[in-house]
Amino acid sequence: MRAFAVWLCLLALASAALAQECEPVDWLVVDLPQGGDFLEIALEVAYPGSDLDRSGGTFTSADGVVVPYGGQTDVAPLDRLANASIGDQFYYVYPLEFDLEPRKAAWHDPGRLRNDALFRALWFDSKSEARASLVKVRYRGQTRSASFQATSKHCVHAQLQAALVEIAGMGAEMDRFLANAGGSFNWRKISGTERLSAHSFGIAVDFSTKLGGYWRWSGAKPGQVGAYDNRFPAELVEAMERYGFIWGGKWHHFDGMHFEYRPELIVMSRLVGG
Q1: Is the whole-model pTM more than 0.70?
Q2: 72 within 8 A of 91, measured Cβ to Cβ
Q3: Which of 28, 55, 191, 246 lies at a 20 to 30 A Cα distance from 255?
Q4: 87 phi and psi, to 5 degrees?
Q5: What domain range is 15 assigned to?
Q6: How far apart are CA 236 and CA 205, in angstroms?
């Protein structure tokens, strides 16, 4: 028991040290390299120390984990979702404008396509590794508060904290979007698949479950999801995007409460003028 307490103390000290080293990045304005391969720029800028070698067919994480690179595939949308390559993750351009018209197109889900091997290489391959990296991040509004667990890897916790501070600074009217929060870290597989959820890596948070909306709750069929009653304001979404979190409300298969840290998609959108 004493050893466990010592381990917890060391973990807290390590988390504090990591927090001190992180300076939040505004992904909407950060300088980007001029010229070059957009996909390489997006991944290597978003995850410093990583390397995409398209000619060699590999991606190497900052930790030295090597996974195969695959380009965009010419398959049915459902097959692409189930077995997305690294290139497939960029198949749909994530829109930076607060425009919900693009998501009405069937299967237009920018960010919902994830390559499991890449995520495990970028983040963690075990629950224990992921859990050991977690830092508590708090939203302190005028009438409500909420807390989330986010990984300290790639400074995700600092990015999330900066976004929550900005949202809280918008006034008490933002508090209701953080009430009844759906949660954050949860090591689990996506229902019906062998792929890990983004929540497994400590890079995703769900805000209000009552206001967010989720396509499965609407009774819609896959690929046939129409408009939905979005209640999340543009300024909240932009604050999250500023610090690297994409919003599931821009997906055809909408998940209006869901945000996940995907700065590579923000960078790619800027590179291609999206």
Answers
A1: yes
A2: yes
A3: 28
A4: -65, -35
A5: 2-271
A6: 14
